[in-house]
């Protein structure tokens, strides 16, 4: 290995592979790996979750017109909604003259409640972290940086690119910077375009619909130190496709606090499962530290039949965790519950 490293600059194969003298080859290979989002064309396409049919009407408005729930993103034929006596049929009938629904449409009261609660969180802005969650972070901080004060101001908030305030844009740009610092680009296999900014800002790009994604950030003295992207597919399942902590703040317990906040939020929303794609080298951390387990192939297939937008990455395994019940009700949950009632 010493001889190979010594003469890297004279090795044509090494030069062609982009090797750099003096840099650990394994580390370099890891950094050069790029995760590729699976194309939606490769996934199983189910247009209507009621009839499992994929036939649809492209123009006009009729029985085979497909309406998508604005929260769980499930697709329904108008005719199937009428046949099963599902919600908002009067609205659907009225839409016969308008061709497409105006405003938000939800397939059930649960989806409407989840959407409303998330919108209220966006408006509320930052929230202080409960003391019960800060204890773990303070202990880790003291172990890593002894003899330093731990009376810092730690807060968290949920963000969306659809609320285009200067403050929101600033926090989202910081989240993008953290993800780019920790990950290589997540690219479209056809165009090579980086998906990370679109995921953070909740934008649609070339058949990939990220509009339902939210970005949760943890701030330390108003500075973003950890971020996570999540999406709630109704009460059944939520996904957490991307999480990261800034390189100078890793190992201090910040993400553990942010994850607890996200998990408590999902518990309040009565979400049953949280899933995420885990790189093989990080799988043990998720399973041993956060209580995840590998998702059975059959269950993944069932989830993808209704949540076909769920993200998977090349070289990762899908993990799942049942969201624990919300045992401790903090002030945030109390306030949102009162506003929703």
Automatic annotation (TrEMBL):
<dbReference type="Pfam" id="PF23209">
    <property type="entry name" value="IDM1_C"/>
</dbReference>
<keyword id="KW-0862">Zinc</keyword>
<dbReference type="InterPro" id="IPR011011">
    <property type="entry name" value="Znf_FYVE_PHD"/>
</dbReference>
<keyword id="KW-0863">Zinc-finger</keyword>
<dbReference type="GO" id="GO:0045944">
    <property type="term" value="P:positive regulation of transcription by RNA polymerase II"/>
</dbReference>
<dbReference type="GO" id="GO:0003682">
    <property type="term" value="F:chromatin binding"/>
</dbReference>
<dbReference type="GO" id="GO:0008270">
    <property type="term" value="F:zinc ion binding"/>
</dbReference>
<keyword id="KW-0479">Metal-binding</keyword>
<dbReference type="GO" id="GO:0000977">
    <property type="term" value="F:RNA polymerase II transcription regulatory region sequence-specific DNA binding"/>
</dbReference>
<dbReference type="GO" id="GO:0005634">
    <property type="term" value="C:nucleus"/>
</dbReference>
<dbReference type="InterPro" id="IPR016181">
    <property type="entry name" value="Acyl_CoA_acyltransferase"/>
</dbReference>
<dbReference type="InterPro" id="IPR056511">
    <property type="entry name" value="IDM1_C"/>
</dbReference>
<dbReference type="GO" id="GO:0042393">
    <property type="term" value="F:histone binding"/>
</dbReference>
<dbReference type="InterPro" id="IPR013083">
    <property type="entry name" value="Znf_RING/FYVE/PHD"/>
</dbReference>
<feature type="domain" description="Increased DNA methylation 1 C-terminal">
    <location>
        <begin position="183"/>
        <end position="321"/>
    </location>
</feature>
<protein>
    <recommendedName>
        <fullName>Increased DNA methylation 1 C-terminal domain-containing protein</fullName>
    </recommendedName>
</protein>
